[in-house]
Amino acid sequence: MTQARLNPVAILVSAFAHQALGALWYGALFAAPWMKLVNKPLEELQAVGGIAYAIAFLAALAMATAIAILFRRAGTATAAEGAIIGFLLGAALIMAPWITNGVFEARPLALSLIDSGYPVIGLT
């Protein structure tokens, strides 16, 4: 079986799309409930500055590269197949342990759902 090469442009686009989803997710969609649940002043959250966005982009790039490798190895041929596999991986490997940790840390379930939902949707 011939292995196709990874598409670096698609990986970069995916990483940027994930960042855009994060801006929407923690902005227009869930800003108010998330801010209330994390219980930190806006100034403290803004103080992390650009380094947080750089780290988040590198993490998105790592996720996009890993998922591209997995999709190639699995022979994923359509966007629908990719979405299903991405959702299942996100739900099983991100959301489930994130919620479990949240329960043991006595974090609100809503906070765990918001925080883990973003990467699950990002992988879908």
Report on the structure:
With 124 residues, the protein is an all-alpha fold. 82% of the residues lie in helices and 0% in strands. α1 packs across α4 and α1 (8-29) runs antiparallel to α6. The relative contact order is 0.14.
Distance between the termini: 26 Å
Mean pLDDT: 93
What are the secondary-structure elements, in order, as H or E? Answer: HHHHHH
Structural class from helices and strands? Answer: mainly alpha
Oligomeric grouping of the chains: single chain
Q: Please count the beta strands (DSSP E, at least 2 residues each).
A: 0
Number of helices: 6
Strand content: under 5%
Helix content: over 70%
Please outline the major beta sheet: none
Task: State the shape.
Answer: globular
Low-confidence stretches: none
Radius of gyration: 16 Å
Short précis:
This protein has 124 residues and is an all-alpha fold. The protein has helices at 8-29, 31-38, 42-46, 49-74, 79-104, 109-123.
Q: What topology does this entry show?
A:
Elements: H1 8-29, H2 31-38, H3 42-46, H4 49-74, H5 79-104, H6 109-123
